[in-house]
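User: Run a structure prediction on this.
Assistant: Running it now.
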Amino acid sequence: MRILDRYILKSILVIFAGTVFTFAFLFIMIDLFSNLQDFIARKVGMEVIAQYYISFLPSIIVQTSPMAGLISTLWTYSSLNAHNEIIAIRASGMNFWQITRPALVFAMLVSVFVFLVNEEFVPQSSMVNQQIRDTEIKVVPSQKGRGLPPIHNLTFYGLRNRLFFIDTFDPNTSELDGITIIGHDRHQNLIEKIIALKGKWTGIDWKFFNCQITTYTSTLPNAPPSDIRMYAEKLMDIRETPKDFLRQRMDISSMNLRQLHAYIKRFAGSGALKTVNNLRVDMHEKITFPLRNFIIVLIGLPFALMSVGKRKAMTFTSIAIALVIGFLYYVSDAVGLALAKGEALLPWEGAWLTPILFTLMALFIIFRNF
């Protein structure tokens, strides 16, 4: 590695680490003061509070690394520019790519690091954080010490190729509200639909109340049901126990890419097209998310190297411009994902629109000015 590369990389690393630490500190302080009343009212111990905020760290690193990388690289190169060092480097015959190689390599390594953290640590830490929040911090006083809070919008694949949609599951009383169960055969053909107002675990079986069971025998699309039966009460042939319901709770933020892909594959034949589309958008977003670390740095670097006007003023001006671009990246990405979830774009189009657009924009600026 060249002396110049080491010099630039050292500056970037120091500022990056300091920026991430600052973001983490500010986030924890803000969250601590906002939850301080709950901590006192619930008599939450220091050990639980420490575990709660430690579980935040992987998510904080993942979420703040793009802006931390942008700030660290732009501050480094803008400082070089302010002290005329960029002019000296370019006078030696080095082009844009040679000058910015340390920053681009660093940004690429951060992207890989964020991908690994997002896959291996964020899902588990999110589950731990949510569990502490539900059971120790946000639990109402009357429920303190009485177990887990109700789980809303529970969706999972169960045994016998059944897809469960539960509005509310109370793990303390083993009661269900708003039940929809869709059953398929091994070829993913619809064979039954069970709808019930309420359900209760008897200790051996599930008893459903105000239940409707619809069966299908034809595999033709839009075929009418072969039988519809109504029951005021009915013991159901469902093998899942309340512990299985609790264990099968699925949250997209608690899944890595491999788990989400498998979940979509099982979900694909459920007939819930809107849900499947949203899951596919989330999967592509998990792939493109780490790339923003590299793309935001790529599009910000040209502004840091520009030597127009007063160089000391340009140090802050270039950073301000690049930060605006970074903000626009987040806004554009959110719009693309929203359009994809609204089915105005395909899932991959919504997730990849912003990375491709901003990469092309960055290359245009670089080749036009350097």
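Residues 3-42 form the longest helix (40 residues).
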